[in-house]
Amino acid sequence: MGKYKVCVYAICKNEEQFVDRWMDSMSEADQVVVLDTGSEDRTVERLRARGAEVAVEEISPWRFDTARNRSLELVPEDLKKPELTADWEMRLGSIAKGGLKKEKLEIDKQVLVIWSW
Fold it and tell me: What is the model's pTM?
């Protein structure tokens, strides 16, 4: 089994204060794509400066599922997609060399499950 590439996708709005911590926690990902839904602070600029690919689109009327689905459309089909929001963190070491393992990660009282195929 070959090494999987991991792409993290997220939605955000006015999350400037979390950008550095969040991007640090995504350091194991091969690619980070973010859909910004109308930030009025420097979220977009800071994410791009840290290497995230950022698209901007206002979702009106607001629907979380629509925003999440639009962000998923930014991810290349051949990449794995752990689902996070910009206020979650991925712990270092959670993505094993040679592929993903099924893990349960405690993330700020929220749980992320990463599956391995």
Answer: 0.68
